[in-house]
Amino acid sequence: QVQLVESGGGLVQAGGSLTLSCAASGGALSYYVTAWFRQAPGKEREFVAGINWVNGHTYYTNSVKDRFTISGDNAKNTVYLRMARLELEDTADYFCAAGTSVMSFPARGSYDYWGQGTQVTVSS
Q: Do 5 and 23 form a contact (C-beta atoms < 8 A)?
């Protein structure tokens, strides 16, 4: 059983940067596809970014391309989401997810494990 714990959320001004962390225990993330999703108030949870640790392939939703970067640290068993040039629309709870049989990064149902989330608020 893999446990995922997100951290790093907070309040940031538009245009600023923030880095989220997702620390895993109970299993090595290097065997999983790991992703970040987010859920804004009143909206469905949406895919943000994903990484396949086996081949290093990354994938981003269009709205965060060139602003967000997903990366992983095997030694720390942690995945990161570096967010730059933040926009008001990036305000949401951010969730880390991991799965072993992920056929499509954005497919929420493909992920076996989820963290509790960390809140990101972007102010004007």
A: yes
